[in-house]
Amino acid sequence: MKDIMVKEEGSFCPFCGENFGSSDGVKQHLCEKEKEAFTDKDLEKMNTPSERSANYAENYKAEHGTNRFTVNVPLEEFDNNQLEIDIGEEIHHLISVGPYAFTLRINRLGNYFGIDINSTDNLISAPSVDPVAFKKKHGMAFSDLSDKSKYDIAAAAIEKSKIQYHKGNHDFEPEKGIPSYEKKLVQDLAEIEYEILAKSRKEGCLGQTPEGREEAKNLIDNKLKELQEKIKSDITDFEPSPDGKQIVERFLAKEDYKYHTGKG
Q: How far is 173 from 116, CA to CA, in rounded Å?
């Protein structure tokens, strides 16, 4: 990613999209109207791909506390007896790190403007089965349960928390024609990127003046916050659709889509 960011994308101005042949060419372009507008340090920061931090979950829990609970679910592997299931939590990035990093120009601008993809504002707690606690309590690996039992546990966790269930990555497509969580994110981020490019091509490169950079920063800040709120509204206050039709745009797991549309 670092090589792609510097050697390939680094030759393009992230504000106006023009190709200046190298990172140095981009620096000269951005300093055209102000001699010291961009420094080598700014370019290094801009062209460093964002990564998931090692302590984002701990930071979130330190600020918001932990969210663990139990649900009682009859499971066919246990003669349909009610079992008390421990539900833990996964701390989820609203704007996932992968799609953000791979939407290269948004990532570069975010880096330059000091946007932290691992900040607690971009995180949310989502329920998820604690497999260690499950095996310790019930003597069976959670992975050995049937799909029906796994869904029943997920549905119970969603019903109790009113938050989408978290499981694995988010690159599945609920159905043909419905983009995955991560693909939808790339589309959303690309729209923000295009807005910056369109303004630069119409008004002159926003990166060349203090006023333009401030405009770009405010636009990105506001658009990312709007996107975070949209995603949060999909994940929280999560309930079945009254008529079985999809209402929310994004799903963290197949279980969420099935619960929402009644296809479980």
A: 28
